Amino acid sequence: MIGKLSPEEIEAVLQSNTLGRIGCNDGSKTYIVPISYAYDGKYILAHSVEGMKIEIMRKNPEVCFEVEDVKDITHWKSVIV
Question: Which residue of 13, 20, 21, 29 has the fewest CB atoms within a 10 Å radius of its CB?
Answer without folding.
Answer: 29
